[in-house]
Specification:
single chain; about 70 residues; mainly alpha; 3 helices; transmembrane; membrane; transmembrane helix
Length: about 70
């Protein structure tokens, strides 16, 4: 028998709690949706100009995040 009878509790670091697939996919999806809204709004040319870059960034982020472990 071992001297330590209590089971070890796995401690998760802050990075393990923050860098999870579910929340990051939600952030990426929100960025994609914001880019689409920016594309479709008729008021600001600046927002329209940045809409493609925003949508592209969200898509690339979603692609990378989908490879992260659950």
């Amino acid at each position: 028998m071992s001297a330590d009878a209590t089971p070890s509790i796995a401690r998760h670091s802050l990075a393990d709690r923050v860098l999870r697939r579910g929340p990051l996919e939600a952030v990426a999806t929100t960025i994609i949706a914001a880019g689409v809204v920016m594309l479709m709004q008729p008021f600001s040319l600046t927002l329209y100009s940045w809409s493609f870059a925003t949508t592209l960034f969200g898509t690339v982020m979603f692609t990378f995040v989908s490879k992260v472990r659950e």
